Amino acid sequence: MERDRSLMERVRRGDEAAFTELARRYAARLLAVAGRLLGSRADAEDAVQRALLHCYSGAAGYNPRWAVSTWVYRILTNICVDELRRRATRTAYDQRAGAGAVAAGSANHRPPGAYLDLHRALERVPREARLLLALRYVNGLSYGELARIRGISVNTVKSQLARGKSLLRAELGKRGAGHA
Amino acid sequence: MPDARIPDPLDRLLTDYFRPEAAPPGLTRRVVAVARKSEADFLRLERSLAIQATPRGVCLIRAGRLEEPVTAAARRLAEQAREEIHEYLRGARAFFGVSVDLSTVPDFQRRVLEAARQIPFGEARPYAWVAEQIGRPRAARAVGTALARNPVPLIVPCHRVWRSDGGLGGYLFGTDVKSRLLALERGTPVLEGCATTRIVCRVGCVHGRHMRPENRVIFASVEDARSVGYRPCRVCRPAA
To answer: What is the pTM assigned to this prediction?
Structure first.
């Protein structure tokens, strides 16, 4: 973490090499979170690109009291969440327009292959809980970090994760997926 | 809570599902290139704007020069509009609170402009959609003319109306600005919560001004925010 911070210090001073290194460290994990939240690879890449752009041009807003990862994930989730909001508005319009348009969000979902059941079960989990699950399992972020990323209390994080997982268990159980 | 000593199969499944993905080559290079280019994009537009208001609201926005508003109330409104446009163009505002005065606008055009105001932030609608909204489905062309003469661009979002085939149509400040405005709106979040007060506001609300960047959390809906213990702001009323 210490090395992340000194890297960030250089990014703040506009060091492009430091930024490239920071992006290299985080890009794969950011893509996983964005990909699972947004569904399509193209949207995920766009979100990650915008998040990294924000990390670069908004580096002055980084508060060194925070772990760099907390800050980076906060930026990415903010962008993904807003994208989901926009989709909901657009879907409502498409449906009213009634041109047989499929919801923009689900039309380009990547086939999740072996994880089809889990993928569908996750769609039943409320958005905030799903977000926390993604952050928790992509990077093993701590409850404290999750709380800071979403601006909620540690207790809310715990209850949301527990609720999300129990919903998942119930959904997977219904589908008879082979797990305990 | 499940016993931590026994490995939970659901944990393993989730870890597998959320494993990192390889980033595409050249991603960071693209980001740096965009960062260099996008600085000071709207500065010139903002500087060129003149704003006229009556005591009832903003009535005219144009590039160039206009007469100063006469009354103190009108001056205050023009000043408020300038401030809101400044925040909007910086991506710090997702709605306009200042009132507009369309009382001198002909009836048909006023209905067109009111319909355009119903288009959500960051969205685009075809001219034909506006025509339908005002109950004149065959008047798409007249709608285009009415929007082209929009007295208060930016605040009445005629830039959100495009051609049905995805073409830009025209714009008072040029089609380049029109597409950049929509890109700006797509990059601007609409609902933000404050991590210390647990209040969720529309971006641009007075509360947001006092919010430190590290306390800013974006939400997809008021319902989502409620689900993790936030309440909607009573000033900007994000649920409405």
So the answer is: 0.81
Asked if B206 and B163 sit in the same domain, the reply is no
Question: Same structural domain for residues B157 and B207?
Answer: no
A56 touches chain B (CB under 8 A): yes
Query: Per residue in A27-73, pLDDT tens?
Result: 988 998 898 888 888 899 999 999 998 888 888 888 888 889 999 99
Q: Measured between beta carbons, which residues in chain A are less than 8 angstroms from residue B31? A: 19, 23, 49, 52-53, 56
Q: How many domains does chain B have?
A: 2
Here the ipTM equals: 0.76
- Given B17, B28, B216, which is nearest A23 (Cβ)? B28
Q: Smallest Cβ distance to A31: which of B21, B194, B227?
A: B21
pLDDT in tens, A90-126: 777 777 665 443 444 443 444 456 678 888 888 889 9
User: Which residue does chain A place closest to B12, by CA atoms?
Assistant: A137
- In Å, how far from its chain's centre is CA A13? 27
B240 touches chain A (CB under 8 A): no
Residues of B recognised as catalytic: 158
How far, in Å, CA of B62 to CA of B65, rounded?
8
Closest residue by Cα to residue B223 from B239, B204, B235: B239
Three-state DSSP at B4 gives: coil
What is the domain extent for residue B209? 191-232
Task: Tell me whether residue B12 is in a domain.
Answer: no
Q: Which residue has the tokens 């067109």?
A: B112
DSSP code of residue A61: G
Inter-chain contact A137–B18, Cβ cutoff 8 Å? yes
Q: Which residue of A has its CA nearest to B193?
A: A151
- B2 in any annotated domain: no
Domains recognised in chain A with CATH numbers: 1-110 (1.10.1740.10), 113-180 (1.10.10.10)
- Cα(B69)–Cα(B115) distance, rounded to whole angstroms? 27
Let me know whether B169 and B208 are in one domain. Answer: no
